[in-house]
Amino acid sequence: MVTITLSPLYHRKQQIIAIDFIYNFAIKEYIKSINNVKWSATKQTFYVENTIKNKQNLFYKLQQKKWYVDYSKLNKKQEIKKKEQSRSIILPILNEDTQDNLNKFTKWMQQKRLSVNTINTYKEVTSYFLRYAQLKKKPISKRLVEQFNYDFIFKGNKSVSYQNQCINGIKKYLDYNSLSFTDFTLERPKKPKKLPEILSKNDVKNILDAIANLKHKTLLTLVYSAGLRIGEALQIKVQDIDSQRMLIHIKAAKGKKDRYTLLSNNFLDLLRIYYKTYKPKTYLFEGKNGSLYSNSSAQSILKKACAKASIKKRVTLHTLRHSFATHLLENGTDIRYIQDLLGHNSPKTTMIYTHVSERSIRNIKNPFDNL
User: Is 283 labeled as catalytic in the residue annotation?
Assistant: First the structure.
Protein backbone atom coordinates (compact mmCIF):
# COMPACT_ATOMS: atom_id res chain seq x y z
CA MET A 1 0.00 0.00 0.00
CA VAL A 2 1.18 3.52 -0.79
CA THR A 3 2.13 5.43 2.36
CA ILE A 4 2.16 9.23 2.48
CA THR A 5 3.82 10.81 5.50
CA LEU A 6 2.89 14.34 6.53
CA SER A 7 5.29 16.23 8.81
CA PRO A 8 5.47 19.78 10.16
CA LEU A 9 8.44 21.87 9.04
CA TYR A 10 9.59 25.47 9.14
CA HIS A 11 10.69 26.78 5.74
CA ARG A 12 11.46 30.36 4.67
CA LYS A 13 9.99 31.78 7.87
CA GLN A 14 6.79 29.85 7.22
CA GLN A 15 5.09 26.83 8.78
CA ILE A 16 4.64 24.11 6.17
CA ILE A 17 3.50 20.50 5.85
CA ALA A 18 6.10 18.26 4.22
CA ILE A 19 4.68 15.49 2.00
CA ASP A 20 6.97 12.45 1.85
CA PHE A 21 6.63 9.13 0.01
CA ILE A 22 8.73 6.45 -1.66
CA TYR A 23 9.43 7.77 -5.15
CA ASN A 24 6.94 6.79 -7.81
CA PHE A 25 6.33 8.89 -10.92
CA ALA A 26 2.53 8.52 -10.83
CA ILE A 27 2.39 9.48 -7.14
CA LYS A 28 4.71 12.45 -7.75
CA GLU A 29 2.54 13.75 -10.60
CA TYR A 30 -0.62 13.42 -8.51
CA ILE A 31 0.94 15.25 -5.52
CA LYS A 32 2.13 18.03 -7.86
CA SER A 33 -1.41 18.46 -9.18
CA ILE A 34 -2.86 19.26 -5.74
CA ASN A 35 -3.60 22.96 -5.23
CA ASN A 36 -0.84 24.99 -3.53
CA VAL A 37 1.62 22.07 -3.41
CA LYS A 38 5.19 23.19 -4.13
CA TRP A 39 8.61 21.57 -4.34
CA SER A 40 11.43 22.68 -2.04
CA ALA A 41 14.91 22.06 -3.44
CA THR A 42 16.34 23.01 -0.03
CA LYS A 43 14.25 20.53 1.97
CA GLN A 44 13.99 18.05 -0.93
CA THR A 45 10.28 17.55 -0.37
CA PHE A 46 6.86 18.55 -1.65
CA TYR A 47 4.98 20.80 0.74
CA VAL A 48 2.03 23.09 1.33
CA GLU A 49 1.68 26.04 3.65
CA ASN A 50 0.34 24.80 6.99
CA THR A 51 -3.16 26.29 6.97
CA ILE A 52 -6.53 24.78 7.83
CA LYS A 53 -7.74 25.17 4.25
CA ASN A 54 -4.64 23.47 2.82
CA LYS A 55 -4.89 20.63 5.35
CA GLN A 56 -8.50 19.96 4.48
CA ASN A 57 -7.81 20.00 0.76
CA LEU A 58 -4.72 17.79 1.15
CA PHE A 59 -6.56 15.19 3.27
CA TYR A 60 -9.47 15.12 0.80
CA LYS A 61 -7.20 14.64 -2.24
CA LEU A 62 -5.19 11.87 -0.56
CA GLN A 63 -8.29 10.07 0.69
CA GLN A 64 -9.60 9.94 -2.88
CA LYS A 65 -6.64 7.71 -3.76
CA LYS A 66 -7.27 5.49 -0.69
CA TRP A 67 -3.60 5.71 0.24
CA TYR A 68 -2.45 5.27 3.83
CA VAL A 69 -1.77 8.72 5.25
CA ASP A 70 0.46 8.98 8.32
CA TYR A 71 -0.24 12.35 9.90
CA SER A 72 0.72 11.45 13.48
CA LYS A 73 3.57 13.98 13.44
CA LEU A 74 1.14 16.80 12.69
CA ASN A 75 -0.47 16.24 16.07
CA LYS A 76 2.78 17.14 17.80
CA LYS A 77 3.65 20.77 18.29
CA GLN A 78 6.22 21.93 15.81
CA GLU A 79 9.43 23.11 17.42
CA ILE A 80 10.26 26.61 16.24
CA LYS A 81 13.26 28.57 17.43
CA LYS A 82 12.22 31.49 19.59
CA LYS A 83 14.33 33.82 17.48
CA GLU A 84 12.49 32.80 14.31
CA GLN A 85 9.13 32.82 16.04
CA SER A 86 9.58 36.38 17.30
CA ARG A 87 10.35 37.63 13.80
CA SER A 88 7.52 35.86 12.01
CA ILE A 89 4.03 37.21 11.41
CA ILE A 90 1.13 34.80 11.16
CA LEU A 91 -0.94 36.09 8.27
CA PRO A 92 -4.64 35.24 7.86
CA ILE A 93 -6.07 33.33 4.90
CA LEU A 94 -7.41 35.61 2.18
CA ASN A 95 -11.15 36.15 2.21
CA GLU A 96 -13.12 35.09 -0.87
CA ASP A 97 -13.39 38.57 -2.43
CA THR A 98 -9.67 39.28 -2.12
CA GLN A 99 -8.77 35.80 -3.36
CA ASP A 100 -11.05 36.34 -6.36
CA ASN A 101 -9.33 39.66 -7.06
CA LEU A 102 -5.92 38.00 -6.79
CA ASN A 103 -7.01 35.38 -9.34
CA LYS A 104 -8.15 38.14 -11.71
CA PHE A 105 -4.80 39.85 -11.20
CA THR A 106 -3.09 36.58 -12.19
CA LYS A 107 -5.15 36.33 -15.39
CA TRP A 108 -4.34 39.98 -16.15
CA MET A 109 -0.61 39.20 -15.91
CA GLN A 110 -1.09 36.19 -18.18
CA GLN A 111 -2.73 38.45 -20.76
CA LYS A 112 0.29 40.75 -20.46
CA ARG A 113 2.34 37.67 -21.46
CA LEU A 114 4.61 37.78 -18.42
CA SER A 115 6.66 34.63 -17.91
CA VAL A 116 5.24 31.81 -15.78
CA ASN A 117 7.97 32.27 -13.16
CA THR A 118 7.33 36.02 -12.93
CA ILE A 119 3.58 35.50 -12.60
CA ASN A 120 4.01 32.92 -9.84
CA THR A 121 6.45 35.16 -7.96
CA TYR A 122 4.28 38.30 -8.22
CA LYS A 123 1.19 36.36 -7.22
CA GLU A 124 2.92 34.95 -4.16
CA VAL A 125 4.39 38.23 -2.87
CA THR A 126 1.16 40.13 -3.61
CA SER A 127 -0.77 37.47 -1.70
CA TYR A 128 1.42 38.13 1.35
CA PHE A 129 0.83 41.87 1.04
CA LEU A 130 -2.95 41.47 0.72
CA ARG A 131 -3.01 39.10 3.68
CA TYR A 132 -1.03 41.67 5.65
CA ALA A 133 -3.56 44.37 4.64
CA GLN A 134 -6.34 42.04 5.79
CA LEU A 135 -4.55 41.51 9.11
CA LYS A 136 -4.21 45.27 9.65
CA LYS A 137 -7.78 45.88 8.38
CA LYS A 138 -6.57 48.86 6.35
CA PRO A 139 -6.98 49.92 2.69
CA ILE A 140 -3.93 50.04 0.42
CA SER A 141 -1.90 53.17 1.10
CA LYS A 142 1.69 54.34 1.08
CA ARG A 143 1.82 53.90 4.84
CA LEU A 144 0.57 50.30 4.61
CA VAL A 145 3.18 49.42 2.00
CA GLU A 146 5.89 50.89 4.25
CA GLN A 147 4.57 48.93 7.26
CA PHE A 148 4.54 45.71 5.22
CA ASN A 149 8.07 46.41 4.07
CA TYR A 150 9.22 46.77 7.69
CA ASP A 151 7.13 44.12 9.47
CA PHE A 152 7.14 41.32 6.91
CA ILE A 153 10.38 41.88 4.97
CA PHE A 154 12.85 43.66 7.25
CA LYS A 155 11.82 42.08 10.58
CA GLY A 156 11.29 38.79 8.80
CA ASN A 157 14.95 38.93 7.75
CA LYS A 158 14.13 38.47 4.06
CA SER A 159 16.88 38.89 1.47
CA VAL A 160 17.43 42.01 -0.59
CA SER A 161 16.42 40.08 -3.72
CA TYR A 162 13.17 39.01 -2.08
CA GLN A 163 12.48 42.59 -0.98
CA ASN A 164 12.87 43.79 -4.57
CA GLN A 165 10.56 41.01 -5.76
CA CYS A 166 7.94 42.19 -3.27
CA ILE A 167 8.24 45.78 -4.50
CA ASN A 168 7.92 44.61 -8.11
CA GLY A 169 4.89 42.48 -7.29
CA ILE A 170 3.11 45.26 -5.37
CA LYS A 171 3.94 47.73 -8.14
CA LYS A 172 2.37 45.42 -10.72
CA TYR A 173 -0.71 44.95 -8.53
CA LEU A 174 -1.11 48.72 -8.20
CA ASP A 175 -0.79 48.99 -11.98
CA TYR A 176 -3.55 46.38 -12.32
CA ASN A 177 -5.76 48.51 -10.06
CA SER A 178 -4.88 51.67 -12.05
CA LEU A 179 -3.08 53.22 -9.07
CA SER A 180 0.06 55.28 -9.52
CA PHE A 181 3.12 53.74 -7.91
CA THR A 182 4.72 57.17 -7.55
CA ASP A 183 2.33 57.77 -4.67
CA PHE A 184 3.70 54.63 -2.97
CA THR A 185 7.42 55.26 -3.42
CA LEU A 186 9.65 52.69 -1.79
CA GLU A 187 13.41 52.89 -2.05
CA ARG A 188 14.85 49.73 -3.48
CA PRO A 189 17.68 48.40 -1.35
CA LYS A 190 21.01 48.02 -3.11
CA LYS A 191 22.08 44.46 -3.70
CA PRO A 192 25.50 43.51 -2.35
CA LYS A 193 27.91 43.35 -5.26
CA LYS A 194 29.07 39.76 -4.96
CA LEU A 195 31.31 38.26 -7.58
CA PRO A 196 30.20 34.94 -9.09
CA GLU A 197 31.99 31.71 -8.20
CA ILE A 198 34.12 30.60 -11.17
CA LEU A 199 35.38 27.12 -11.95
CA SER A 200 38.70 26.56 -13.68
CA LYS A 201 38.67 24.68 -16.99
CA ASN A 202 40.19 21.73 -15.16
CA ASP A 203 37.38 21.83 -12.57
CA VAL A 204 34.76 21.78 -15.33
CA LYS A 205 36.49 18.82 -17.01
CA ASN A 206 36.67 16.90 -13.73
CA ILE A 207 32.97 17.51 -13.01
CA LEU A 208 31.88 16.33 -16.47
CA ASP A 209 34.23 13.33 -16.33
CA ALA A 210 32.65 12.33 -13.02
CA ILE A 211 29.24 11.83 -14.69
CA ALA A 212 28.73 8.31 -16.04
CA ASN A 213 25.13 8.69 -17.26
CA LEU A 214 25.13 9.77 -20.94
CA LYS A 215 22.00 11.93 -20.66
CA HIS A 216 23.25 13.71 -17.54
CA LYS A 217 26.69 14.32 -19.05
CA THR A 218 25.17 15.70 -22.27
CA LEU A 219 22.86 18.10 -20.40
CA LEU A 220 25.57 19.61 -18.18
CA THR A 221 28.03 19.76 -21.08
CA LEU A 222 25.45 21.75 -23.03
CA VAL A 223 24.91 24.20 -20.15
CA TYR A 224 28.65 24.92 -19.95
CA SER A 225 29.61 24.75 -23.66
CA ALA A 226 26.79 27.11 -24.71
CA GLY A 227 26.67 29.31 -21.59
CA LEU A 228 22.98 28.61 -20.98
CA ARG A 229 20.60 29.19 -18.12
CA ILE A 230 19.25 25.80 -17.07
CA GLY A 231 15.72 26.83 -18.08
CA GLU A 232 16.99 27.60 -21.60
CA ALA A 233 18.76 24.24 -21.86
CA LEU A 234 15.65 22.31 -20.83
CA GLN A 235 13.48 24.21 -23.36
CA ILE A 236 15.73 23.44 -26.34
CA LYS A 237 14.06 21.38 -29.04
CA VAL A 238 15.78 19.02 -31.45
CA GLN A 239 15.30 21.40 -34.39
CA ASP A 240 17.01 24.24 -32.48
CA ILE A 241 20.40 22.58 -33.05
CA ASP A 242 21.91 23.95 -36.29
CA SER A 243 24.89 21.68 -36.99
CA GLN A 244 25.46 23.25 -40.43
CA ARG A 245 26.13 26.71 -38.99
CA MET A 246 27.40 25.32 -35.64
CA LEU A 247 24.88 27.40 -33.72
CA ILE A 248 22.11 26.76 -31.18
CA HIS A 249 18.90 28.78 -31.51
CA ILE A 250 17.67 29.88 -28.07
CA LYS A 251 14.02 30.86 -28.36
CA ALA A 252 11.93 33.09 -26.08
CA ALA A 253 14.62 33.26 -23.40
CA LYS A 254 14.68 35.79 -20.55
CA GLY A 255 12.91 38.95 -21.67
CA LYS A 256 11.20 36.94 -24.45
CA LYS A 257 14.28 37.36 -26.63
CA ASP A 258 15.65 34.93 -29.21
CA ARG A 259 19.38 34.60 -29.72
CA TYR A 260 22.04 32.27 -31.11
CA THR A 261 24.88 30.79 -29.13
CA LEU A 262 27.83 28.52 -29.91
CA LEU A 263 27.60 24.83 -30.78
CA SER A 264 30.86 23.21 -29.77
CA ASN A 265 32.44 20.63 -32.11
CA ASN A 266 33.28 18.37 -29.17
CA PHE A 267 29.77 18.74 -27.78
CA LEU A 268 28.25 17.90 -31.18
CA ASP A 269 30.09 14.57 -31.16
CA LEU A 270 28.66 13.80 -27.71
CA LEU A 271 25.21 15.04 -28.76
CA ARG A 272 25.08 12.68 -31.76
CA ILE A 273 25.81 9.69 -29.53
CA TYR A 274 23.14 10.89 -27.09
CA TYR A 275 20.57 11.39 -29.87
CA LYS A 276 21.09 7.91 -31.31
CA THR A 277 20.76 6.41 -27.83
CA TYR A 278 17.73 8.30 -26.48
CA LYS A 279 15.98 9.40 -29.70
CA PRO A 280 14.24 12.47 -28.21
CA LYS A 281 11.12 13.51 -30.14
CA THR A 282 10.37 17.12 -29.20
CA TYR A 283 12.59 18.48 -26.45
CA LEU A 284 16.27 17.60 -26.56
CA PHE A 285 16.08 16.46 -22.94
CA GLU A 286 12.80 14.81 -22.06
CA GLY A 287 11.46 13.42 -18.82
CA LYS A 288 9.09 10.50 -18.68
CA ASN A 289 6.29 10.48 -21.27
CA GLY A 290 7.99 13.28 -23.23
CA SER A 291 7.55 15.87 -20.48
CA LEU A 292 10.11 18.57 -19.68
CA TYR A 293 13.15 17.38 -17.77
CA SER A 294 13.26 18.57 -14.16
CA ASN A 295 15.38 21.54 -13.09
CA SER A 296 15.83 20.03 -9.61
CA SER A 297 17.05 16.75 -11.13
CA ALA A 298 19.71 18.64 -13.09
CA GLN A 299 20.91 20.41 -9.94
CA SER A 300 21.05 17.10 -8.08
CA ILE A 301 23.20 15.60 -10.86
CA LEU A 302 25.65 18.52 -10.62
CA LYS A 303 25.83 18.27 -6.82
CA LYS A 304 26.73 14.57 -6.97
CA ALA A 305 29.28 15.15 -9.73
CA CYS A 306 30.98 17.91 -7.71
CA ALA A 307 31.21 15.63 -4.67
CA LYS A 308 32.68 12.85 -6.80
CA ALA A 309 35.19 15.28 -8.37
CA SER A 310 36.11 16.66 -4.90
CA ILE A 311 35.08 20.22 -5.84
CA LYS A 312 34.78 22.20 -2.60
CA LYS A 313 33.41 25.43 -4.10
CA ARG A 314 29.71 26.23 -3.86
CA VAL A 315 28.64 25.24 -7.37
CA THR A 316 25.22 25.70 -8.99
CA LEU A 317 24.05 25.19 -12.55
CA HIS A 318 24.48 28.93 -13.10
CA THR A 319 28.15 28.57 -12.08
CA LEU A 320 28.71 26.69 -15.35
CA ARG A 321 27.30 29.67 -17.28
CA HIS A 322 29.50 32.10 -15.31
CA SER A 323 32.54 29.91 -16.00
CA PHE A 324 31.77 29.74 -19.74
CA ALA A 325 31.67 33.56 -19.96
CA THR A 326 34.86 34.00 -17.92
CA HIS A 327 36.77 31.42 -19.96
CA LEU A 328 35.71 33.17 -23.18
CA LEU A 329 37.01 36.47 -21.81
CA GLU A 330 40.29 34.84 -20.77
CA ASN A 331 40.64 33.47 -24.32
CA GLY A 332 40.47 37.04 -25.65
CA THR A 333 36.85 37.10 -26.86
CA ASP A 334 35.45 40.63 -27.19
CA ILE A 335 33.06 41.34 -24.33
CA ARG A 336 30.40 42.57 -26.78
CA TYR A 337 30.25 39.10 -28.34
CA ILE A 338 30.04 37.53 -24.90
CA GLN A 339 27.09 39.82 -24.12
CA ASP A 340 25.28 38.59 -27.25
CA LEU A 341 26.01 34.93 -26.50
CA LEU A 342 24.69 35.24 -22.95
CA GLY A 343 21.67 37.32 -23.96
CA HIS A 344 22.41 40.22 -21.60
CA ASN A 345 20.45 43.43 -22.13
CA SER A 346 23.21 45.65 -20.84
CA PRO A 347 27.01 45.40 -21.20
CA LYS A 348 27.16 46.35 -17.50
CA THR A 349 25.86 42.88 -16.63
CA THR A 350 28.56 41.23 -18.72
CA MET A 351 31.31 43.50 -17.34
CA ILE A 352 31.21 41.60 -14.02
CA TYR A 353 33.33 38.90 -15.66
CA THR A 354 36.22 41.34 -16.05
CA HIS A 355 36.45 41.31 -12.24
CA VAL A 356 36.89 37.54 -12.05
CA SER A 357 38.96 36.97 -15.18
CA GLU A 358 42.23 35.31 -14.26
CA ARG A 359 43.90 36.68 -17.40
CA SER A 360 43.18 40.34 -16.60
CA ILE A 361 44.30 39.96 -12.97
CA ARG A 362 47.49 38.07 -13.82
CA ASN A 363 48.60 40.87 -16.18
CA ILE A 364 48.87 43.26 -13.22
CA LYS A 365 52.41 43.52 -11.91
CA ASN A 366 52.56 42.93 -8.17
CA PRO A 367 54.64 45.72 -6.50
CA PHE A 368 56.03 43.20 -4.01
CA ASP A 369 57.92 41.53 -6.87
CA ASN A 370 59.99 44.70 -7.33
CA LEU A 371 61.12 45.00 -3.72
Answer: no
Which 3 state secondary structure label does DSSP give 81? coil
Query: Does domain 201-361 sit in CATH 3.40.1110.10?
Result: no
Q: Mark whether 344 is an active-site residue.
A: yes
What local confidence, expressed as pLDDT, does residue 7 receive?
A: 86
Domain 96-184: give its CATH superfamily.
Answer: Tyrosine recombinase, N-terminal domain (1.10.150.130)
Q: What are residue 97's phi and psi, to 5 degrees? A: -65, -45
12 is catalytic: no
278 among known catalytic residues: no
What are the start-end ranges of the E strands in the chain? 3-11, 14-20, 38-40, 45-49, 68-70, 241-242, 247-250, 259-262
Q: Name which of 58, 136, 59, 128 is nearest 93 in CA terms.
A: 128
Q: What is the reported pTM?
A: 0.60
Q: What is the spatial order of strands in the sheet that 241-242 belongs to? A: 241-242, 247-250, 259-262
Catalytic residue among 215, 254, 259, 303: 254
| 237: β partners | 283
Q: Which of 61, 87, 229, 259 is catalytic?
A: 229
Please pick, among 158, 217, 321, 322, the residue that the annotation labels catalytic.
Answer: 321
Catalytic annotation present for 353: yes
pLDDT bucket at 345, cuts 50 / 70 / 90:
confident
Q: Is the pLDDT of residue 352 over 70?
A: yes
Per the annotation, the verdict on 131 as an active-site residue is: no
| Mean pLDDT rounded to a whole number for the chain | 84
